[in-house]
Amino acid sequence: MTGFVAGCDLGSTAGKALIMRDNQIIAYAIINAAAKPEETARKVMDEALRNAGLESLGEIGAVVCTGYGRSKFPYEHENISEITCHARGAYWLSPKVRTLIDIGGQDCKVIAMDDGGKVRDFGMNDKCAAGTGRFFEVMARVLEIDLKELSSLARQSTNPVSITSQCSVFVESEVVSLMNDGVNLADIAAGLHASIAGRLTSQVKSLGPVEEDISVSGGCAKNRSLIEYLQKKLGKTIQILPEDPQIVGALGAALIAATRPDKSALRR
Question: What's the rounded Cα separation, in Å, for the pair 38 and 76?
Answer without folding.
Answer: 12
